[in-house]
Amino acid sequence: MTAEQIIDSNLFPLKPSDTVAFARETLILMQISALPVVENDMVIGFIESASLINPSPKKNIKAFIKVESTWLLNEKQHHYEAIRLFAQDHAPCLAITSEDTHYRGIISKRMLLKFLNQSYTMLAEGSIIEIEMVARNYSLSELNSIIESENSKILGLTIYSIPESSRILISIKTNSIFTDRIVLSLKRFGYDVTNTFFNTHDIFDSESRYESFIKYLEI
Questions:
Q1: In sequence order, which residues have a C-beta less than 8 Å from that of residue 150 and are 6 or more positions away?
Q2: Does residue 204 or residue 20 have the better pLDDT?
Q3: Residue 147, Cβ neighbours under 10 Å: how many?
Q4: Which residue from 98, 95, 117, 119 is spatially nearest to 32, judged by alpha carbons?
Q5: Judgement on whether residues 160 and 60 belong to the same structural domain of the protein
Q6: In this structure, what CATH number is given to the domain that contains residue 40?
């Protein structure tokens, strides 16, 4: 998915001629800590709420514009790049531009999280298995083969670097609620399984049905 597909239509930019009072009210109304400033369809910088605390409400915001090129993202770039900018550059929002650098819209953290939460990987029932390993030993094809051998499928996978280490942490989302057989298979192939998570709702439902069945047998 590209950046243009997750633009927040509820947000709009400020103009350099806007007053401090108007900018303050807009930031509060939109529940965001910064907004791009656009002039002649071009992003000239950003206004942050912290810079508007002391200035006179009647002043325009031009003198308080922060030039920040890392908060810009081309509309055709992948949404992973938006995630990177929010995390690495601590961007409060991203101004989305076209190939010819014209303003196209704004991505907020709120909209990005909403978009990510709508992915099939997030919504599908299943379990998460965490594996820690040396980065050079990582093989998606082997992991997939092991998990599929237990009649399960990988729905999504995320790899995290472990600071000051050559090791990585892999979070695997599978379509299986129960993980015991998968974990045993992974361990049999030498994988260090550090944690598992599952849909507790489904587990509790299963336990409840089992308890009801036992009570039925006892009647």
A1: 176, 181, 182, 185
A2: 20
A3: 21
A4: 95
A5: no
A6: 3.10.580.10
